[in-house]
Design goal:
Length: 314
């Protein structure tokens, strides 16, 4: 993976963020360690998780991903080499919320599971409209001042609330969101482009998209008549029913064939080339799934190829 680090506030991150949502879900601890070791060996340093991962798996309570990562840090002694992102405010069946007490308890729980005394990038996972942006901003700023958090970010937030937070934190000299983590990929562009993208651009915020491969659809393994053994197959296969999905696959096939690359590599390279995007997030539950993700950092698409993909995904 190319060593072209991207900036998120004062953090220098790899151009691909390794998603931790599969750790403790479709990948057990041993499998997770194998993927994590390979990612780090390839020069990767940006890992994304959340306090609720992976509560949706049978028998899980939430926090499994953070626990596995904490065990990995402890066994490898490499915590200072990794830019670690986690989140607060999620939860099942009811969200934790973003009250000062919820954020305070959330960070302490995450620090304990991760076996660390600081988080590099701390996201509000889901917005909580019942709490004012002023209260959220003040609470997060205190965590930064205490050294528990280096940078803060937001996910699943409206353009209006994001703009209000950034305006207030700037005016008051508080820690401000350095990153937005939106749902964004070739078959889901309106979840970011438009008002959210405008706010991010105006305030100089980096973008770290999740669902970068549309739950696997953009790997190309989902085709008409094919059956895929995956926990995400239903969500991915739905794109086969849309004209956009079919056009995107055709465009990806064309560009991938020209470069001798995997479709996932091309899809991530397109996303990385979009304005404000610092590092797409993609997960790998097995070692064989990792190389196409890492290769995106080394793939330079021509403007013609970028335009082809953009037009197909319109």
């Amino acid at each position: 993976m190319a060593d072209n680090k991207q900036k998120i506030g004062d953090l220098s991150v790899s151009p691909l963020s390794l998603g931790g949502n599969v750790f403790g879900w479709t990948a057990d601890e041993a499998e997770s360690f194998t993927v994590l070791d390979a990612y780090a060996a390839a020069g990767g340093n940006f890992i994304d998780t959340a306090d609720v991962y992976s509560v949706w798996a049978p028998g899980n309570q939430g926090g499994e991903s953070e626990t596995i990562l904490g065990n990995w840090f402890a066994s490898r002694g490499n915590r200072s080499d990794i830019v670690l992102a986690t989140k607060v405010g999620g939860g099942r069946p009811e969200p934790r919320g973003l009250s000062p007490a919820a954020i305070r308890s959330g960070i302490e729980d995450s620090l304990r599971r991760l076996r660390t005394d600081y988080i590099d990038l701390y996201y509000t996972h889901y917005d909580d409209p019942s709490v004012s942006v002023e209260e959220i901003a003040t609470t997060l700023d205190a965590l930064v001042r205490e050294g528990k958090v280096r940078e803060i970010g937001a996910s699943n937030v409206s353009a209006e609330r994001l703009d209000s937070f950034l305006t207030f934190s700037t005016q008051e000299g508080l820690a401000r969101y350095a990153a937005l983590q939106p749902h964004y990929n070739l078959v889901s562009r309106d979840t970011f482009e438009g008002a959210l993208a405008d706010v991010v651009t105006r305030h100089g915020v980096a973008t770290v998209p999740y669902y970068a491969l549309a739950t696997g659809f953009l790997t190309g393994k989902y085709r008409p008549g094919s059956a895929v053994d995956s926990s995400r197959s239903a969500g991915a296969a739905k794109h086969l029913e849309t004209e956009r999905g079919k056009k995107v696959l055709a465009a990806l096939d064309e560009v991938a064939a020209h470069h001798g690359a995997e479709l996932a590599t091309v899809a991530l390279a397109w996303l990385a080339a979009q304005p404000t995007v610092a590092a797409p997030i993609a997960s790998a539950r097995t070692l064989t799934q990792l190389p196409p993700l890492l290769a995106a950092a080394d793939l330079d698409l021509t403007q013609q190829e970028l335009d082809l993909l953009t037009t197909a995904s319109a």
